[in-house]
Structure formats: C-alpha cells, structure tokens
Amino acid sequence: MDANILLSVINTKLRDFYSSLDDLCEDLDYDKDNIIKELSSINYYYDEELNQFILK
Known about the structure:
This protein is α+β, with helices and mostly antiparallel strands. It has a two-stranded antiparallel sheet with strand order 1-2. The termini are far apart. The chain is built from three helices and two strands.
C-alpha cells in the first residue's frame, strides 16, 4: 500500500474508532512496527497526545 494512502486510512481509523495506535493494531491485527516504519519513510510519526500521525 502506498504510504500516503496508509497515512490517510490509519489517521481516519484513529480519529473515528480508536483511542490509541496500540488499540487499533490489536483490534485489526496490524503490525505496529511496520506501520511506524512505513509512515516514517514519508516523515510522519505517531503523536500519542494527538492520537494521530503527524509530519516531523
């Protein structure tokens, strides 16, 4: 999946359905480390306070 599409999907799910990245990954059986790696390749990181990936 394209990293920009992944960013959109993950941030939408975090905003609408999940209180944390851990909850999302556990519920959907996603690999948290892989998501973080993919999104860091386009200079985004997970901000726990905002519960979203934001630009570095």
